[in-house]
Amino acid sequence: MIKKGDLFKLGVTALTVAALLTGCGAQQGAQKGAVAVNTYKVQAEDTPVKAEYSGTVTATDKVPVRPKISGRVVEKYVQGGQEVTAGQALFRLDSRTYDAALAQAKANQAQAAANLANQELNLRRYQTLASQDAVAQQIVTDQEAATAQQQAVVEANAAQVDAAQDNVDDTIVYAPFSGKLNVDDVPIGTFATAGSTALVTISSTNPVFVEFSISESEYLQMTKQTGAGSWGDHLLLRLSDGSTYPYEGRVVQVNHGMDGNSGSIIVKAVFDNPDNLLIPGLYATVVSDTQVQRNALAVPQRAVQQTLGKYYISIIDSDGKAQTKEVTPGQKVGKFWIITDGLSDGDTVIVDGYQKAKGATLDQHLLTKTDIESSSDTTTDSTSK
Q1: For the segment 19-72, what is each residue's pLDDT rounded down to a tens digit?
Q2: Are 92 and 171 within 8 A, CB to CB?
Q3: Residue 177 in this model has a pLDDT that exceeds 70
Q4: Burial (Cβ within 10 Å: 0-12, 13-18, ≥19) of residue 196
Q5: Could you say which DSSP state residue 381 is in?
Q6: What pLDDT score was predicted for residue 256?
Q7: Which of 6, 32, 299, 334 is most buried (most C-beta within 10 Å)?
Q8: Which CATH architecture has domain 96-168?
Q9: Which CATH number fits domain 51-60+203-293: 3.10.20.310, 1.10.10.920, 2.40.30.170, 3.40.50.1260?
Q10: Three-state DSSP class for residue 52
Q11: What is the pTM of this model?
């Protein structure tokens, strides 16, 4: 049988255990209410950035190949789209008329040469007779003039032969430089007019230009930072498949007049193209030399939240509570994202755990720039889940 005193002791013990359990539960509840977050303190600093521009590949040289003489195309040695080298034969024009003109010029030259030989013989004969006082000196003088005149005729005929030979040679049309032919080559039978008819268009392939546009303010900023004419010496090129072109380029031409259509300054950069990977008309992204953005505010990329086309960042306010702010992101630099609007120097940004941070007590762990850069990826870790 349990006595009354024993019942009292059991009641006191039960109350004590209940009080202890209640205290432990309260303590565990308080610990559970604190949300662990990783934070990063934003500091304004000059940040190296890479500027990117949409560019188009163009040939450094692109010309229509026109014949120097007129004639009908009777033979083609190439087809449109073919790679050719400087001096390679492309077309042959009908040469019959020019062959006949060359033969006539040579005949005239031979006749003139024979007449000159006869005049020179007469001159020597008169000079001998004049030395013997057999003829008047005036006859010798007249013969010298006739010989000189015939010499001029010979030289004129020689020039006509050279011109006729050039016409014959020009019936073969050659590539002016190494490059690639367009597919606008004319068919056999086309009558080509000297200096007018384009037989084919040829474009150089190595090197090539990449043409892109920059704003006036960007141009002024870059030239002030690096000195006029010295920026753009180490350009990179990102192709449409995401790969980086293996050769660096450099700026060779800047159109200081504003482009009337886009209001931008046109820039041309030259890139080596030994493998002919870059072809005219190809689109690529030009990545400029490293520039410096003054007093930039950069945050870890994984701290930026995107919803319905808008960007947000969670910061810790003066009361130690999480507060969401809409921001305007700029350029990504490594694992950071430069914020151009909506953020202030000295703000503490929640990097991980912002999903559960609103209205909760925060257990903060401050990350350094080195922590962010050495992290394995830019995704949210387990504290944000």
Answers
A1: 444 554 444 444 456 788 888 989 888 877 777 889 999 999 999 999 999 999
A2: yes
A3: yes
A4: exposed
A5: -
A6: 65
A7: 299
A8: Orthogonal Bundle (1.10)
A9: 2.40.30.170
A10: strand
A11: 0.59
